[in-house]
Amino acid sequence: MFTGIIEATGNITAIETSGTNKSFWINSPVSQELKVDQSVAHNGVCLTVEEVKDGMHRVTAIAETLDKTNLGNWEKGHTINIERCLLMNARLDGHMVQGHVDTTGTCIKLKELDGSWEYTFQFPTEFAGLLVEKGSIAVNGISLTVFNVAKDHFSVAIIPYTYEHTNMQAVKEGATVNLEFDIIGKYVLRNAQLHAKS
Question: Domains in the chain, please, with CATH?
Fold first, then answer.
């Protein structure tokens, strides 16, 4: 379980392919502190640490993960968001994030404002029921508040701190991002669907 509060950014130093899987070596400020078998969110995707050495850690994504997230687009040198799992005695500053990406979205508009940035993302309409005005979403693992919610797009505002300490500065128009919708909304929608069928 995560909170969507990014702890650090990391850089992909190497990519290895084995069958349909891809392994990524990542250098980050927290890599050396990680332990094998730990769950760590990478751009919002929960991956298991398989190896730690020389200030780097290695994780592997299977075909399904590569298909449903933006990990398949990762290249050497890319900057990614890193968050270690939630400590149960810690403050929950963002919202409950599982690290299970639902789909990807596309940045269709980027507006630089005086002191902040406004991004608009398009997403598949099948997920429209999981977004509400001023609700929460994880974009590349970052806990954000949505506004201007429509059937197939929404906007988020990025403050300077988030812009400087995450990979949002690398997100331009046309970029693909990972989206995880609020777990509470998923349960509410599922419950409504079951009652509608009975």
Answer: 8-84 (2.40.30.20), 103-197 (2.40.30.20)
